[in-house]
Design a protein that fits this description.
Number of helices: 12
Number of strands: 37
Strand content: 25-35%
Helix content: 10-25%
Structural class: alpha/beta
Strand order of the largest sheet: 8-7-4-9-15-11-16
Shape: globular
Amino acid sequence: MTVGEKREQEEKDDSENSDDEEKKVETTDEPASYTNGSVTLTSHVIKNKRLIPEFMPVIMAAGYGSQLYELTNNTPKCMLPVANVPLIWFPVQFLIRHNFKETYIVVREGAREVIEKYLSAQLEKEGVKMAVEYVVIEDESEKGTADSLRIIAPKTKSNLLVISGDLITKVSLSELANVHRASNASITALVAPWYTPANPEGKKKRNKKDDRDFVGLDPSDNRILFLSNEKDLDDEIVFRKGQLSVFPHMRLYTTLRDCHLYIISQTAVQALMNKPEIAMLRCEFLPLLVRKQIKQVANAEQFTDIYSTLEQETEGDIKFAALAPPEETGCFVHITDDFTVRVNQLHNYIKYNKAVGELMSDMLPKHTPPATVKSFEETQYGVHQQTQVCKLSRVSEEVAIEGKCSVKRSFIGCGVKIGAHSRIADCVIMSGVTIESNVTLSNSVICPGAIIRSKSNLKDCRVCDGYEVRSGSEFTDETLIGDEENMMSFSIDNSNNNSSSSDENVLR
């Protein structure tokens, strides 16, 4: 059932169950309250006593995964497994945790069928009733996140709760919602420290490949004064004199990450509707709102000519006037220490698999481990009794792992076959992979349908869909890509990816 069908059914039920007096109830502005999981949400009474929810969720799941392209050749980014669970499940599970009953999901046309099939089956398996309406974007379309919100906005009167399809978090929505309400914000964003596990020496050190965000906040109320990714910046950051006059104290963070979880007020949504040329939420719309709030505060403090010492107004400033809603614009953040990651960079993929398996095990779907078997003569699936699988591993029920193997801190998908005397450590093995005997794999990702022939040794590698590693091969830090006509291997340095905003340009 889609969100629209759910609303029509609610209206029909209300009409059938209401007496004549109740049917005359008109729309009012009286606020009502109800509990949505751990969050107390407000709403408004409308005709026939139906409630408008305070927040309408929108999951952005149409990204190509430009920084994960070695893994997404034949798998949509949002269907990549994390701790053996498709990535799309985590934002959906976040909504279930907070008792939401409906959501919009933005998907690519070519990925809709597989996503819808998985979510329908998983929701049924979990016994959860949720109305999901898919907003389908053409595969070759360059529409951005803001474009998709303009499709959804006319369908709801609620504030929008926008969630990136690659977000995994344990944060409570009540924390973010309370900041949004207390600040009467136009937009409220969730930010969190980079997840950095301690090394064997007990020290935490940031990976230099991580794309840092520069987050400038007013220390008095966590108002956003600056927000940008380092790859979107030049060699230096320039702040306007007028901004520093209004906000002389600004704390600039490089250890916080924009989680791409936003609450957007209806006022801001209507402003976005009036600017069809804005394609991206994070890179275009949010900066405009930030600049607008600075200008409003300046005017309120009678800095009527704060830009007089600067250059002539830019085209962005001119856009401002048409964009601005009549109410005061406010952009704020909530900083959380709860476990929060975005699975959008290859070098963090295995690390985040292990972190989710360890720190969010209570939030993962119910898992049935494979059976222990003495031999595979009478059974197709199972783990041989002479094979060791450590507790930090997560192995699908439908696997076949022969004797005298070792599986440590790894995640193994459905239909995987592993030959005898193989050693697997810190790996993600996706569905349908065949690993022959005496193979050693360390800190590697093996994509669906790959074949690893006997006596191969791979360390820090990515083996793409359908690639066949020849017997006795040895590779270190390689990406192995193959197709029907040729096979090749080469090293890839993901730190040279040029655009941090490219995923948003295609709807994350």
